[in-house]
């Protein structure tokens, strides 16, 4: 269903955003100490890709977006977009960047249509009712165009924020936690919308707490924690590296050794032969398949079990692992 | 240096539309207050007062009253205009847009000035129902009102950036501007004051503003028009300078 990253012609991929050595220290207030929200971050985003920035609360995702979009003044480092240096060409740059903020920050007495048309004008584009209509229709907001924002549901308000960000036809779009607090259906909608944007050639950078979301939408994923980018890689590679399924089969009878038919699965016999433990998978469903296969094999081999305990590694586990790995290599 | 005209006009129009959304509330209170002043000071007390410098007392207070309203309305309109987006968080859009200090000022302060001019027109019209007055130098008066409205809208803009709560937002107009205006010769000529108060009054900048406006109405005032205009222009330039510095350092705007 999903198209993959545009094939790099002549072997080179065009860079749309280049961040070098970006550091942000929020000054301390009163007794609060200064916060190092970003520590020497390097990040390169390719034109046309969907990039997911994955990280827990307080990792620095919003700060990173803020530094590019103009809400945050970097302490040091450089930011280039479209080949322009932000220090000098911020106007040209900003005119081509769109931002959907994490917080619901709108004038709630404003009407949907006017709010979106305002955004277009604010970014210096000539009024274009046809284009605004198109944006509103794409986001299923056309019927609500004359409603005040306060009369909309939370999910719809979020869509208005997206419409506002798209009103000036940006080439680079930031979505700060686009699916936080929206229901499953709207989440699907959102993913489809983002897919459509990619087809139109918009480069999308989104932040999320959810591995599944990065998995579903992104071409590449960057993992950020405590102000540091821990790794950046193609989604599949990252999921392979990070995603882990763990399953424990509690056996009815202790086993002396594992049957040969299980030798190609990542399983071990533990707990004096009373437990078969599975640790493997690649974060994209392979682990679950293998555990299902394992269960069938056990039945076929006439090995009885009384319980299955299965879990996917959480984002938390992944960070712990990454930090450990980082500590080991440096 | 580039200027994004579409962006500036968009902000300007948006602010005026916001004003129209609440036009009744925005106009009714200052107009009502002014009417009350005219009834009390113009009609009731004014009838028993001597002329001031050859002008009927009722007419004499028109410029002062106009200024009283202009100062507080320009300041509070402009301060609310920029404070509200900061308060709701919708300022993110302005910060991420390709606009700098010039577009922001034309948009926000321009709109506040326009509102003040509309208000001035309404107050001057209202005044004709209570007192007879003439404007000796109408063109001068217009530019002077424009100048004062601009200067105090700029002050309001600074206030809206500085305030971190509604309390502070109302503090400056209420605790500084209104007392200074009342003591600044709104209802009297400072010649009426005995020393040392006369000299003390000359340290009140509002005295010069009221005098300047009074001169455009009646061709005479406590302080000469050149001093008054010079002071106002100086104040305006100072405000623009302060705002430019604020934008360049990102104070209260960018983290
Ligand atoms: N205005 C601020 N002043 C001081 N510290 C701040 C400010 N904004 C953010 N921080 C701190 O900077 C760090 C990074 O915050 P940031 O909002 O970028 O995280 P995040 O990854 O977006 O988190 P979340 O997933 O919760 O949105 C946190 O420790 C936060 O407390
Ligand atoms: Mg955030």
From TrEMBL, chain B:
| UniProt membrane topology term | Multi-pass membrane protein
Q: Which organism is it from?
A: Croceicoccus mobilis
GO CC, one annotated term: ATP-binding cassette (ABC) transporter complex
Among InterPro entries, the record links this protein to: ABC-2_transport_permease, ABC2_TM, ABC2_TM_bact-type, ABC_2_transport
Q: Where in the cell is it found?
A: Cell inner membrane; Membrane
- Does this UniProt record's set of keywords contain Nucleus? no
In the record, the note on similarity to other proteins reads: Belongs to the ABC-2 integral membrane protein family.
Q: Locate the transmembrane regions by residue number.
A: 23-45, 57-84, 104-130, 142-163, 169-188, 225-247
- Sorted UniProt keywords: Cell membrane, Membrane, Transmembrane, Transmembrane helix, Transport
- Which PANTHER family does the protein's record reference? INNER MEMBRANE TRANSPORT PERMEASE YADH-RELATED, TRANSPORT PERMEASE PROTEIN
Any GO molecular function: ABC-type transporter activity
- Protein name as catalogued: Transport permease protein
Pfam families tied to this protein: ABC2_membrane
Q: Which residues form the ABC transmembrane type-2 domain?
A: 21-250
């Amino acid at each position: 269903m999903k198209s993959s990253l545009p094939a790099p012609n002549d072997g080179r991929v065009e860079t749309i955003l280049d961040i070098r050595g970006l550091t942000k220290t929020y000054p301390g207030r009163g007794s609060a100490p200064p916060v190092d929200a970003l520590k020497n971050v390097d990040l390169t985003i390719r034109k046309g890709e969907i990039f997911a920035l994955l990280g827990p609360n307080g990792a620095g995702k919003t700060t990173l977006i803020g530094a590019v979009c103009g809400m945050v003044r970097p302490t040091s480092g450089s930011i280039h977009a479209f080949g322009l240096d932000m220090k000098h060409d911020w106007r040209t740059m900003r005119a081509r960047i769109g931002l959907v903020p994490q917080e619901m920050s709108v004038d709630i007495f404003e009407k949907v249509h006017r709010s979106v048309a305002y955004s277009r004008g604010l970014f210096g584009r000539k009024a274009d009712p046809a284009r605004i209509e198109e944006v509103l229709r794409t986001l299923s907001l056309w019927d609500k165009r004359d409603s005040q924002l306060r009369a909309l549901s939370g999910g719809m308000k979020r869509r208005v924020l997206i419409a506002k960000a798209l009103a000036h036809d940006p080439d680079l779009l930031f979505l700060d936690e686009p699916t936080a607090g929206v229901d499953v259906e709207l989440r699907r909608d959102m993913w489809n919308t983002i897919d459509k944007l990619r087809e139109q050639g918009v480069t999308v950078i989104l932040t999320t707490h959810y591995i599944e979301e990065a998995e579903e939408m992104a071409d590449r994923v960057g993992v950020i924690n405590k102000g540091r980018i821990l790794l950046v890689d193609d989604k599949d590679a990252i999921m392979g590296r990070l995603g882990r399924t763990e399953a424990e089969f509690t056996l009815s009878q202790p086993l002396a050794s594992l049957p040969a038919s299980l030798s190609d699965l990542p399983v071990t016999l533990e707990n004096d032969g009373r437990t078969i433990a599975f640790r493997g998978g690649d974060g994209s469903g392979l682990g679950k398949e293998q555990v299902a296969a394992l269960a069938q094999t056990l039945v076929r081999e006439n090995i009885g079990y009384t319980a299955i305990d299965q879990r996917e590694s959480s984002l938390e586990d992944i960070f712990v692992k990454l930090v450990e790995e980082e500590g080991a290599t440096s | 240096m580039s200027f994004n005209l579409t962006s500036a006009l968009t902000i300007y129009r948006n602010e005026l539309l916001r004003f129209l959304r609440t036009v009744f509330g925005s106009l009714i209170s200052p107009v009502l207050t002014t009417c009350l002043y005219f009834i009390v000071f113009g009609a009731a007390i004014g009838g028993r007062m001597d002329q001031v410098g050859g002008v009927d007392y009722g007419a004499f207070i028109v410029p002062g009253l106009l200024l009283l309203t202009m100062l507080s309305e320009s300041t509070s309109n402009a301060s609310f205009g920029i404070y509200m987006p900061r308060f709701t968080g919708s300022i993110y859009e302005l910060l991420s847009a390709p606009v700098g200090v010039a577009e922001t000022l034309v948009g926000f302060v321009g709109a506040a000035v326009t509102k003040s001019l509309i208000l001035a027109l309404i107050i001057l019209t209202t005044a004709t129902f209570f007192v007879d007055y003439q404007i000796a130098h109408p063109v001068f008066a217009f530019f002077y009102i424009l100048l004062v409205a601009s200067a105090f809208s700029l002050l309001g803009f600074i206030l809206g950036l500085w305030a971190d709560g509604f309390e502070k937002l109302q503090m400056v107009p209420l605790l500084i501007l209104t007392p200074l205006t009342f003591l600044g010769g709104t209802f009297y000529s400072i010649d009426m004051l005995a020393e040392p108060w006369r000299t003390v009054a000359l340290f009140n900048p509002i005295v010069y503003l009221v005098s300047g406006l009074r001169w455009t109405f009646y061709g005479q005032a406590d302080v000469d028009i050149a001093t008054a205009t010079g002071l106002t222009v100086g104040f305006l330039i100072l405000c623009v300078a302060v705002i430019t510095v604020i934008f360049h350092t990102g104070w209260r705007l960018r983290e």
